[in-house]
Amino acid sequence: MSGPSNQRMSGSDRRVSGPSNRRRRRIPVVAILSAVLLAFVAICALAQELIAPKALEQDIYLGVVGGGVEGHLFGTDQLGRDILQLSLAGARSALAGPLVVAVGSMLIGFFLGTFAGYRGGIVDMLAGRYADLLLALPAVLLAIVVAGLVGRGYWVTVVVLIVLFSPSDVRLVRSAVIEQAPRPYIESARVLGIRPSRIMFRHIAPNIVPIVVANLLLNVAFALVALSSLSYLGLGVPPGAPDWGRQLADGRQLLGDNPLAAVVPGVLIILTATAVNLLGDWLSDLLDRRMVAR
Amino acid sequence: MIIFVLRRAGATLLLLLALSLLVFAMLYLAPGDIARNLLGTRNVTPEALAQIRARYHLDDPFLQQYWRWLTHAVTGDFGTSIRTGRPIGPLMLEKTGITAATAGLAFLLSVLVGIPTGIVTAVRRGRWLDRVLVTVSVIGVSAPGFAVGLLLLYVFALGLGWFPIYGTGEGFFDSLWHLALPAVALALGLGAFVVKLTRAAVIRELDQDYVTFARGRGLSESATLRIVLRNAAIPIVTSLGLMVAYLFGGTVLIEVTFALPGLGSLMEESVLFKDIPVVQALTLAVAFVVSVTAFLVDLSYLLIDPRVRARTVR
């Protein structure tokens, strides 16, 4: 949950890891496992109606029962909903929102960061102050405050998170662009009289793609944690919607009756976020080495 | 050196001022009518509503309201909580203890475990121990504190019965026992982050020429490591400052999970109730602590790094 700072860290981590070149071609086991898990979550998210058709079916007379009851492998929650189905259905809100947050904030970061880094001047100044201001407060805390006051709802929260995530992306892209700008290929492009907009988005952009892609994944992981945190506090998805954070909040009351109501979504959040992060780390390693090789 | 300190202090104050304006504006612009909120669902006459608006100065221009709020806040007077009807200053003060204890414990735990682990992984880089610890630290960084907290609660409090399920305890050791699980849940993400950044910082130093030179001169490994660690300390200390900010985000979720009546729970309740004066006061307090920490971190460079000291003296 360390968020923006966490991304910055793995940025510097990348440079120093990868001790041997012999192992370069082999895909590490953890990356494969992560990809398999994420593929499973993605399938659940896409085919929710097929895989978990009864996720929202309530059975108030049954109420909460523990795991192992016939027809309910992991038991039910306070509304008699099947924990297994509900958890599988939660995959959709665990992937959709975080993906939108990551892509949205990276788009802002990409355009604003490229302009700020290449053009400098007033855009750079304003973007810098904007980042200073938002980064001075913990993102999760700000998200709680803003989401709580602006209104509740999944997509409102997503927009709030895009705004709160963007400053660290702006900084990231900006510093990557500043690193590229004085290189000979840019100088020659400038001498040739190529338009600045073309230099920015046709010449510089491809060279900062590795950083952007790697951080996109790390953003997804952080957004997943942030969104489920907000749902956990009752600020994300509406009550009753299938969502792991929401399930944890409900499951907290049921620890005595059916602990699996909290354990299953809890483990799913941890595993999914870890898988995304591991994949992001591996990918940034890979892209980084390719950059060096070129 | 004094000029350096003063300049940093000035910048911190300016940032705080900007943040206070941002916080106030954000909550000022928030949808919903505070006066309506105050009265709940009761039916009220327009006169009563106007009276409330006048009492809370809700009809004054924005800047006037901001100025009144700021000048009072500086003296510790944050107004009255809408939800509890109590003055906010004392309300916050009485809840600070639990939050400070939990966060302090978590901070201590993550530093005491994280830094040595980070050094070990850096020194044994690429070996199996390093790879296992790094993977574990990725799990730690990824796992949200409240999910970990619930699992801990289930296993160690409900299952094994080693720790209490809720409550804050009385006396030092009892409190420590009560706050152990929340602190561990909060410390896990933090500690993993410390491992990551210590590893990166130490490895960066180990790759420097001066290390090769020191080894070539026949300096013992432990003597070399001592030089390396001193150099690696700067990025580590900087990030420890960042961690304080992180703690405040995490503590809300942890306190809600473990039902601790601290500042985090107060924040959650106030946000859900739209108790805007309390939310403003808490956000400003966090901004204050975070900026002051950043300021202290900057000052600590003077102690750690002779190069910074030399530059500022000139």
Describe this structure in words.
The complex is a heterodimer of chains A (294) and B (314). With 294 residues, chain A is mostly helical. Chain A is built from twelve helices and no strands. Chain A has helices spanning 4-16, 29-46, 48-51, 83-89, 91-119, 121-135, 139-150, 154-180, 184-191, 196-232, 244-253, 260-293. The longest helix of chain A has 37 residues, at 196-232. Residues 1-22 of chain A have low confidence and may be disordered. Chain B is globular. In chain B, helix 5 packs antiparallel against helix 10. Chain B is mainly alpha-helical and 314 residues long. The longest helix of chain B is centred in the last third of the chain and has 37 residues, at 221-257. Chain B has a domain at 92-266: MetI-like (MetI-like fold), CATH 1.10.3720. Chains A and B meet through helix 1, helix 7, helix 10, helix 11 and helix 12 of A and helix 1, helix 6, helix 7, helix 8 and helix 10 of B.
List the main descriptive attributes of the protein structure presented here.
heterodimer, A: 294 residues, 12 helices, elongated, disordered N terminus, B: 314 residues, MetI-like fold, 0% strand
- Largest sheet data of chain B: none
Shape of chain B: globular
Reported by name, the CATH topology of the domain at 92-266 in chain B is MetI-like fold
Q: Mean pLDDT of chain B, rounded to whole units?
A: 81
Strand content of chain A: under 5%
Beta-strand content bin of chain B:
under 5%
Supply the CATH class of the domain at 92-266 in chain B.
Answer: Mainly Alpha
Write down the Rg of chain A.
Answer: 22 Å
Question: Quick gist of this model?
Answer:
The complex is a heterodimer of chains A (294) and B (314). Chain A has 294 residues and is mostly helical.
Helix and strand topology:
The complex is a heterodimer of chains A (294) and B (314).
Chain A: H1 4-16, H2 29-46, H3 48-51, H4 83-89, H5 91-119, H6 121-135, H7 139-150, H8 154-180, H9 184-191, H10 196-232, H11 244-253, H12 260-293
Helix pairs in contact in A: 1-12, 2-5, 2-12, 5-6, 5-8, 5-10, 6-8, 7-8, 8-10, 9-10, 10-11, 10-12, 11-12
Chain B: H1 2-29, H2 34-39, H3 46-55, H4 62-74, H5 88-123, H6 128-142, H7 145-159, H8 172-206, H9 209-216, H10 221-257, H11 263-273, H12 276-304, H13 306-313
